[in-house]
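User: Please predict the structure of the protein below. I'd like the answer in structure-token form so I can feed it into my own downstream comparison script.

Assistant: Understood. Taking the following sequence of 46 residues as input:
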Amino acid sequence: MTFLTVVCWIMGLSAAGVVVLWIVGCVLSVFNDEKRNADLASEYDH
């Protein structure tokens, strides 16, 4: 493997890691919003 190949691999893996973290963050934020809305709904029920 040449130096450029290693650099490309590292950059590619870093980009993939950022995308994965971004997707996970979006999923968690949506999940938290739904949970918060459910909590608010249950509070309104009382």
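That's the full token string. The chain has a mean pLDDT of 90.
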